[in-house]
Amino acid sequence: MKKLINNPTVVVEEMIEGYVKAYPKHVRQLEENARALVTAKETCEGKVGVLIGGGSGHEPAFMGYIGSGMADGVAVGNIFASPPPDPILEATKVIDKGEGVIYIYGNYAGDVMNFGMAAELADLESGIRVGSVLVTDDVASAPKEEKEKRRGIAGEFFVTKAAGAAADKGYNLDDVVRVAQKANDYMRTMGVGLTPCSLPQTGKPSFELEENEMEIGLGHHGEPGIEKGELQPADQVVDRLVHDILADMPIEKGEKVAVLVNGLGSTTRMELYIMFRRVEQILSEKGIEIHRSYVGDYSTSLEMGGASVTILKLDEELAEFVDHAADCPMYVQK
Amino acid sequence: MKKLINNPTVVVEEMIEGYVKAYPKHVRQLEENARALVTAKETCEGKVGVLIGGGSGHEPAFMGYIGSGMADGVAVGNIFASPPPDPILEATKVIDKGEGVIYIYGNYAGDVMNFGMAAELADLESGIRVGSVLVTDDVASAPKEEKEKRRGIAGEFFVTKAAGAAADKGYNLDDVVRVAQKANDYMRTMGVGLTPCSLPQTGKPSFELEENEMEIGLGHHGEPGIEKGELQPADQVVDRLVHDILADMPIEKGEKVAVLVNGLGSTTRMELYIMFRRVEQILSEKGIEIHRSYVGDYSTSLEMGGASVTILKLDEELAEFVDHAADCPMYVQK
Q1: CA distance A99 to A173
Q2: What whole-number percentage of chain B has pLDDT above 90?
Q3: Beta sheet of A187-195, edge-to-edge order
Q4: How far is A316 from chain B (nearest CA, A)?
Q5: Nearest CA to CA, how far is A120 from chain B (Å)?
Q6: Are residues B101 and B191 both part of a single domain?
Q7: Is A125 part of any domain?
Q8: Which of B138, B169, B186 is the last residue of a domain?
Q9: Per the count of CB atoms within 10 A, which of A100, A121, B165, B223 is most buried?
Q10: Which residue in chain A is spatially nearest to B60 when comparing CA positions?
Q11: Beta-carbon contacts of residue A269 (< 8 Å; ≥ 6 apart)
């Protein structure tokens, strides 16, 4: 697959360099560790730090979400691979303002290990309290009874948004963790994959699908989904995705939700709007109110083709946090 | 090519439906014409109206740019085809607040004809003054001596931004036109294409390139570029693009610019940041200051692979307008 890159072994370094140069008012790279980025704005003493991160290849996640009302720091891994503890730890030390730091990351073995080690080291070396919330929104990745085993995908945006808003409002660490955990608990995502991406270093497709095939529940790194079949019209695909979400997390008539229709990379906004149209039809028929909508590329898998639907159920507190202002390079909300 | 759509003949209608449902606080569809969208916010009497538009398939352009500090109305055409005069005219009538309306659109025969007819009709039917600025930023599409023949591509974002800011600040129509024209005159874009897109109705690729080929100067609708050749490393590609821009529009040491690295659809943000990194290196070596940067999908060609670099030279007035706040569904600036 053709890519506009230089040396495949340094794509992440060159990407970070470009990113930091593009948004010097928003982000800065730590001298202590080139894979640790923090907000360029001064955050106030006593604010809980919000740290996110994971493998590269999901841009604009995660580095695009550094900014006020969202994350204070990001640890950047290699493509589809967790960052080691070092950048996590270094970012933690910088963004801690005396009230501790929350780690938000997807539930993948590597991330669990590395963020876990960093949390221990932060406590041991610097006495920094760390709370962790694992994102587990991917309905297709484990049965309902084992939600804690599910992978984290596009919904990480909402967990970060909720935690970022809570921290911005001066909540203490326990409360920021509680809010982030609630956002994760109140949220489900279902996705569909159409075409693979390829890693810069191998140039090989990450999985194979036939010319007219789709895969329901395909993971963000090409992990197998739950069903392969002939590509259906968008409405039928969305019906299936939303059905699976609502079967897993019932939503009553009159309840409010936030919706994210996320593109995986090469799927056009035209398709994403057509999908959103159907999500809106279904929810509106059920009397469920869409409080706020997000349509676009929020968390990609390089140039993978496909999309996901995330529904976040809103109580009063979460609605307030979803509405909270944010100012990141890749996401600004007034 | 696989697409998440329903009936290919109504993709534009379904896209607009989804878009309007997703952003009801930002946009509304006119009852008079379903292809005419206007801002949902009340604009004040005496503000010059800013109307943009063109073919679909370039999302988030053009409908994503409706909002304060940007466009007040958009006329939506079929895929890669100009809208007819009707939606342009209907949107014009709604957004005119007594001080006239500026039309900003890319220099394509169909758009020139249809926006031209709408402008005449607006005057004849409703006595609305219309000023027009054709965007001609694509260096590769005609020689320097015939700049007025060039096509408009990603740079339309900057022309809309400048005009939207000027209108927001209460400039009269002549001055909004002057500012928009200056933005166009002070701006150049060069692009590279890697992989084709396909139209929903045909499913056929819009052009052909070999497995390891790129095309410099390829147009937004697959119009032939100026040079086909083997895919080069990103730095060399960017060197070529920026070289051609600066040869066409010299920029002196100490001058300020805004830079847009735009993805055509399936090119990853990782690649765009790597490209931006090189743009910054070149300009910084020449002592040219990047005042503000934009990296992402601002104007696509469905799922085409490739990217473009736009450089806008800033005088004091344009710098102020580039910095002006904007609040659109696809673009918010504080």
Answers
A1: 7
A2: 96
A3: A227-230, A213-216, A187-195, A305-314, A256-263, A289-296
A4: 20
A5: 31
A6: no
A7: yes
A8: B186
A9: B165
A10: A269
A11: A263, A295, A296, B59, B60, B64, B297, B300
Q: Which whole-number Å values give the CA distances from B17 to A279, A281, B30, B167, in the listed order?
A: 12, 10, 12, 28
- A124, burial (CB in 10 Å: exposed 0-12, middle 13-18, buried 19+): exposed
Tell me whether residue B221 is one of the annotated catalytic residues.
yes
Among the partner residues B4, B290, B327, nearest to A234 by beta-carbon distance: B4
| Pairing assessment for the beta strands B305-314 and B187-195 based on DSSP bridges | antiparallel
- How far is C-alpha B252 from the geometric centre of its chain's CA atoms? 26
Q: Does A243 qualify as catalytic in the annotation?
A: no
- Specify whether B204 is located in the same domain as B318: yes
Q: Is residue B334 part of a domain?
A: no
Query: Which of A170, A186, A202 is the C-terminal boundary of a domain?
Result: A186
ipTM given for this complex: 0.97
Three-class secondary structure of residue A56 per DSSP? strand
Question: Residue B14 maps to which CATH number?
Answer: 3.40.50.10440
Q: Both A200 and A247 in a single domain?
A: yes
* Confidence bin at A150 (pLDDT 50/70/90): very high
B290 and B146 belong to one structural domain: no
Would you say residue B332 lies in a domain?
no
Do residues A206 and A302 both lie within one domain?
A: yes
Residue B207 has pLDDT above 90, yes or no: no
Q: Which of residues 186-225 of A touch B (CB under 8 A)?
A: 192, 194-195, 211-212, 214
> Which CATH number fits the domain that encloses residue A192?
3.30.1180.20
Domain enclosing residue B267, as ranges = 187-322
| B17: chain A residues, CB-CB within 8 Å | 273, 277
All residues of chain B having their beta carbon less than 8 Å from the beta carbon of residue A305 are: 2, 303
- pLDDT beyond 90 at B10: yes
**Confidence (pLDDT) at A68:** 96
Q: Is the pLDDT of residue B118 over 90?
A: yes
> What is the C-alpha to C-alpha distance for residues A249 and B281, in angstroms, rounded to an integer?
50
Same domain, A163 and A222: no
pLDDT at A206 over 90: no
Residue B94 has pLDDT above 90, yes or no: yes
- Taking the C-alpha atoms of residue A66 and residue A70, their distance in angstroms, rounded to an integer, is 6
Supply the mean pLDDT for chain B.
97
- B327 domain residue, yes or no: no
Chain A contact for B20 (CB, 8 A cutoff) = no
Q: Are the CB atoms for B71 and B52 separated by under 8 Å? A: yes
Same domain, A194 and A177: no
Q: What is the mean pLDDT of residues A130-147?
A: 97
The string of pLDDT tens digits covering residues B147-177 is 999 999 999 999 999 999 999 999 999 999 9
| Mutation choice for A interface testing from B13, B268, B282 by most A CBs within 10 A | B268
Q: Give the pLDDT confidence of B219-235 residue by residue, as tens digits.
A: 999 999 999 999 999 99
Residues B139 and B191 in one domain: no
